[in-house]
Write a structure and sequence with these properties.
- The chain is α/β, with parallel strands linked by helices.
- Helices cover about 30% and strands about 20% of the residues.
- The chain has 18 helices and 24 strands.
- Strand 23 and strand 24 form a beta hairpin.
- Helix 7 packs across helix 8, helix 10 packs across helix 11 and helix 17 packs antiparallel against helix 18.
């Protein structure tokens, strides 16, 4: 059926017709746009559905270029500690959760952040044992680079002092007793996760259905998500998304980043970059080059300002990183590399320079500390900077102590990247940050945490409202080579749009974004969410 969405303030991000009041959709694609009276006169017939936008602001559909929908699903099932501001509250929430469980059942979840605590630091294993004496516990930090466990969890893992810890991982021990403190860093959590009962296929379907519907409610029409390690492998991950998106037609266009651990499986399955359809596709090969700032494991070229002698950690040496990229290239895949520190970025670029480009663009995820010479190397038509503006709201001001004033000048430097011609796409890294893309746009425009009254951290790196929206619309299509299919409201492109309650491009104060809600999410010309 033909549909005409009329009487809106429609920002197309199409340079030929940057703003229109009506769009015409047929067979899931935009076929025309312009003045409302003209569109109705030319296209309306007895079978046309007319939807009145009542003067609301409309943009192309929003894309999150990097998140973990499977981990977001945990908030619908497991203990979610997002926003907890005291250690005491964290312990109380754990104790309450145990009351819902039988003895021996796992307490799972996370999203705690000790930088928010006002009464101390990370709970000790003794404290965790006190609030969860009969239930093994595994709770990941918000960055997913650290986790806390209790004694029951260590017992389930058959822990002993000589246990083999996966490369890059650390079991933090008390200096006096040499006993575990309950804190696990990086891949050390794998000694626990391999003993956690797997969620069943049906459980995953239920949780992911809720998660996808939640993402659409936030205005997302496309998502690039990394899940196989968490969802029981490549085959099950693809099957779940195929059921929900292609069979149930929930709508969210999804590109799956595949962990390098599954390279052999993806080869044997005959999959390739771009395998699938406009709704569900296989994307790049995901790997980590370094850690994160929270535990000072992001790899820097100079020591941390608040930990002299510590440069962070490389997840692979040059030989290991080169081998993974070569294996991906042999299958024609681009890579998507978690890269936070400037030394990690240099290492990744050095390896990429050894190989010819493939059809799809390589993705450098996070890109938080830069140097001028590295920005120039990123400005490449086959490279994408997957940035997460909302990180700024969570990382400041404490990250300034980690990096020092001089290094901050080119940290979280999105304006510098874009001005240098680097293709940037916006994401959330949810559940590290909230799924809501409006919060990422707000952080990009204001460079401050909601409620702050200053002019923003490194204000010269602020983006305009239009630039920030482009991160999540037009440029969100580039990592998946879909810029000719979506990202702008243009004739022939997929009919994805978002309708807002407020007028972002007419705001006197960008903080008004925080009061802006999604009124309608349209995917393939179908209203998938309406307030």
């Amino acid at each position: 059926m033909r549909k005409i969405f009329t009487n809106g303030n429609i920002y197309t991000f199409n340079r030929i017709q940057p703003m229109v009041s009506s769009v015409v959709i047929e067979n899931g694609r935009f076929i025309d746009m312009g003045d409302t009276d003209q569109m109705l006169a030319y296209w309306k017939n007895s079978e046309t559905e007319v939807i009145h936008l009542q003067g609301k602001t409309v943009t192309p559909g929003l894309t999150d270029s990097h998140l973990h929908l499977s981990m977001v699903a945990d908030s619908f099932v497991n203990l979610d500690l997002t926003g907890v501001t005291t250690k005491r509250e964290m312990l109380e929430r754990i104790q309450e959760k145990t009351k819902e469980l039988k003895p021996g059942e796992w307490v799972l979840g996370g999203n705690w952040d000790e930088n928010l605590f006002t009464d101390g630091s990370i709970p000790t294993i003794t404290e965790l044992d006190y609030v969860s004496p009969a239930n093994p516990l595994l709770l990941f930090r918000i960055c997913r680079h650290a986790a806390v466990v209790n004694t029951k969890a260590l017992e389930r893992s058959n822990y002993h002092p000589a246990i083999t810890v996966p490369d890059g991982g650390t079991i933090v021990k008390d200096e006096l007793t040499n006993q575990p403190t309950g804190l696990l860093l990086e891949s050390a959590s794998e000694i626990i996760t391999r003993h956690v009962p797997n969620r069943t296929y049906d459980d995953w379907v239920i949780a992911m259905r809720k998660t996808i519907q939640f993402a659409i409610k936030q205005g997302l029409t496309s998502a690039h998500t990394n899940d196989p390690l968490y969802m029981g492998g490549l085959e099950q991950t693809y099957q779940i998304y195929d059921q929900l998106l292609n069979k149930e037609k929930l709508g969210l266009r999804t590109n799956l980043l595949i962990n390098y651990d599954f390279l052999d499986e993806i080869r044997d399955a005959g999959m390739y970059a771009g395998f699938g359809n406009d709704t569900l596709q296989i994307g790049a090969i995901k790997l980590f080059a370094d850690g994160a700032f929270g535990r000072r494991t992001a790899l820097l070229s100079e020591p941390y300002a608040d930990d002299t002698g510590n440069y962070g950690e490389a997840m692979f040496d040059e030989e290991g990183l080169t081998d993974i990229v070569k294996r991906a290239r042999d299958l024609g895949f681009p890579v998507a590399v978690h890269t936070i520190g400037d030394q990690a970025l240099e290492n990744v670029l050095d390896v990429l320079d050894k190989f010819p480009n493939v059809s799809y663009r390589d993705r450098i995820i996070h890109v938080q500390v830069l140097r001028q010479e590295l920005i120039k190397r990123l400005a490449h038509s086959s490279r994408i900077a997957d940035i997460q503006p909302r990180f700024l709201a969570s990382d400041f001001p404490w990250v300034q102590d980690r990096l020092g004033n001089e290094r901050m000048k080119l940290s979280y430097a999105w304006k510098s990247l874009m001005d240098a011609g680097v293709i940037c796409a916006g994401g959330s890294d949810a559940p590290v940050e909230p799924v809501n893309p409006i919060l990422g746009i707000h952080a990009a425009v204001t460079r401050k945490t909601p409620g702050d009254t200053h002019d923003g951290y490194t204000p010269e790196e602020k983006l305009t409202m239009t630039e920030a929206f482009r991160l999540f619309t037009e440029f969100g299509a580039y990592p998946t080579n879909e810029e000719t299919k979506k990202g702008t409201i243009s004739r022939g492109k997929l009919a994805d749009m978002v309708v807002f309650s407020n007028h972002p491009f007419q705001m006197d104060d960008a903080d008004e974004l925080l009061e802006t809600e999604v009124e309608m999410t349209i995917i393939d010309g179908e209203i998938k969410y309406q307030k």
